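Record 1 of the preview.
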Amino acid sequence: MMAKRRFELDWDNLPEEMSLYFLDLIQHRDISNQVAQLFQVHHESPQLLLIKDGECILDQSHGEISVEDTLVEIS
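->
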């Protein structure tokens, strides 16, 4: 929850057209496995995946999660 709260503090800096989704993948392990397989990432929690044009272009977890890095990737 700490990583989510820290990210939420900077949500206003994200472009309006960027959709954000919070998935509780610990409660839904089947979805977690599908996401990991589809985007070829190792599941961690908490984790931020930035998906652009159907590909995962940024994969961060725990203390690495930042709006600043996300903004760099989408520019």
